[in-house]
Design goal:
By secondary structure, the protein is of the alpha/beta class. The protein is built from ten helices and 15 strands.
């Protein structure tokens, strides 16, 4: 933090797992978790006891009653808009969980509210904050890779469907399945590695091959089906994304697949390439040269790591920006809206069986 005496007063909307993550990180960084809002009484009670915080059933009551600097919104996707827009209208700075919303129209309304707000909105694409990504971006700024023309993006779980009957497998609450849950990270990270070019066209196929099967095999106990389980979303998707100047992203996303797990990203540049895992520490770079003789050169980053990666790193960036009174340049609403347009394009392309334009 630029001024260690600046303690941010944080309110949290949605006190489930991610709400607890944001609150815990804020406390660890020396900030004050003032209040929380959640519809579930037991969840409110546990949060109040953990953080000595005042809790509310409705977030509007918390916004109006408390003296807050910032809000972390970690509700199901369908409820992001109401909580984020109401916070922005009151001048609060907001950290919104990914994706920006459950559909494109809602995301556009959030972006419009953010553009008119006194505060700022940052979206929690935490996988950008990794040792490998930080090293890659510094090499990129030095021109090491030349122009990046293609990224092969993979977020593949062998078995990893979230609890069926939770909001993750409900199209109404989540907006989609694997693409919305984990594909959003892969899309954002690929665009981030390419420095967020304009996206022009998407072709995609989505599949539901496992989540609705009675004989689903789940060694990791992800599935946890409830009595009134709803599964009306996709569990995998394959997409080709064309950006300006014919730069491309090939995307493979699965909650479940009969193949090895992977979070591998392969970056192809005109001067050099790279391989790194989403959220990982290891970076390998590939280039060729004529020094001595024609040769290929592979170099792997070792012995290095940055502090506060992933969720803690993202929360730290947000809270530091709030304390400094300066909007962060990382994980902006405009970038999140681009990701939402790609998600919308994937679903439209899958439904029509043709490539679709992204505007």
């Amino acid at each position: 933090m630029s001024n260690p005496n600046d303690r941010v007063r944080l309110g949290v909307v949605g006190l489930g797992f991610m709400g607890q993550v944001h609150a815990s990180n804020a406390a660890d960084f020396g900030h004050e978790v003032v209040a929380g809002a959640d519809l579930v009484a037991e969840t409110r009670k546990a949060f109040a006891e953990s953080y000595d915080a005042t809790t509310y059933e409705q977030f509007e009551a918390m916004y109006d009653a408390e003296d807050l600097d910032a809000i972390a919104v970690s509700t199901p996707n369908a409820f992001h808009e109401d909580a984020v827009v109401a916070a922005l209208e009151r001048g609060y700075n907001v950290l919104c969980e990914k994706p920006l919303a459950n559909d494109l129209e809602s995301a556009e309304r959030i972006a419009a509210a953010a553009a008119d707000a006194d505060g700022f909105c940052m979206v929690n694409f935490h996988n950008r904050l990794s040792t490998a990504a930080e090293a890659f971006k510094d090499y990129q700024r030095e021109g090491h890779f030349g122009e990046i023309t293609h990224v092969d993006a993979n977020y593949v779980r062998r078995r990893g469907i979230p609890g069926v009957g939770s909001w993750f497998t409900s199209k109404e609450l989540a907006g989609g399945g694997a693409v919305v849950d984990i594909g959003v990270h892969a899309i954002d990270f690929a665009l981030y590695l390419m420095e967020y070019p304009s996206v022009e066209e998407v072709f995609a196929v989505t599949r539901t091959e496992f989540g609705d099967r009675e004989d689903y095999v789940d060694p990791g106990d992800w599935y946890a089906e409830t009595e009134d389980a709803v599964f009306d979303v996709e569990d995998s998707a394959t997409a080709m994304i064309r950006c300006e100047d014919d730069r491309t992203i090939s995307l493979e996303v699965t909650w479940a697949a009969n193949q090895p797990e992977s979070q591998r990203f392969i970056v192809r540049g005109t001067e050099a390439g790279a391989e790194l895992d989403l959220g990982g520490e290891e970076l390998t770079m590939y280039r060729s040269g004529k020094q001595g003789t024609d040769h290929n050169l592979d170099a792997t980053l070792t012995e290095g790591s940055i502090e506060h990666t992933g969720w803690p790193g993202s929360d730290e960036r947000f809270l530091d920006a709030v304390a400094a009174g300066e909007p962060p340049t990382l994980n902006t609403v405009e970038q999140a809206l681009t990701v939402q347009r790609v998600i919308d394009g994937i679903y439209r392309a899958a439904e029509t069986g043709t490539s679709v334009s992204i505007e």
